[in-house]
Amino acid sequence: MIRKGLVAVQRKRNTKKGFTLVELIVVIVIILVLAAAVVPWIMRHITNAKKVPCQSNRRALIYDLVDALAMDEAHTVRDLQQMADDSEIKCPEGGTYTVMCTGDPLENTDTLQIVCDKHKDSISGDGGSTPANPNAASLGLWGDFQKFAEQSSQKKNSALREAFLKEYGGQWPTLTVDGETYYIQPFYSESADSSLPMEQRTWLYATKDSGTASNWSVPYVFDPVTQEWYGATKWNGSAGGSANILSKDADTLHDTIANSTHNGTDRPTWKKVEKFQEDVPGK
């Protein structure tokens, strides 16, 4: 009798329902889905929280640079970059500040920007925050070269470039495309109408040569109208070519980039570079 009772109790215990394997899997999947949705949101807010002190520092720094322009203590992007390098205002997380300008800061300080390579955004002269301009180095170089050429009595391309490089610290900014590094250099058109504004008579190109000798056939050129990089193509249309940049002025260079094709084909000589990185020397 006692034995039968024990068997009955054992059977009763065995009839208690637990979690099935399917139910456990469903619960785990739900947890993983929630984690996948919540964790990125949390990380994004942590990242943004770390960015705020850096943005505040750059706002303070850019106001100092604007004051320097107003006090005639700086005239070029290079001058402003030197002031930023010497300033005690830094990124709290060790990022490097790069000064750039999409126009003439003397005429419009809103075109002045400071980019942090750690946080990948820029603070403009009006205090606003925007995504970092990938052409920061080239625009800074181009703007400084225009002013240098305007003020120089020398109007020969090679002589201008050589003198400018010394003023610029002896190193060109770099353009990296597909893991290959090229030197961004300015070009002055001696054949352009001297009555044109300097931005119409100058442009940029990038080449493997880091010297100051003029290069007529180059792998990359900066369209002065669209302000975008274009790479020369090979005859079959693939990347990695080299093409002539001789043009009378910025407009004709733009037309050449937009419309030129390889002889006897409809394949364009130049193609827009979608992925690239620019770097300032010493940064």
TrEMBL record:
Keywords: Membrane, Transmembrane, Transmembrane helix
Transmembrane regions: 21-43
Entry-linked Pfam families: N_methyl, PilJ_C
InterPro entries named among the record's database cross-references: N_methyl_site (IPR012902), Pilin-like (IPR045584), PilJ_C (IPR040599)
All copies of domain Pilin PilJ C-terminal, residue ranges: 153-233
Tree of life domain: Bacteria
Start-end of Basic and acidic residues biased regions: 264-283
Region (Disordered): 259-283
The protein, known as: Prepilin-type N-terminal cleavage/methylation domain-containing protein
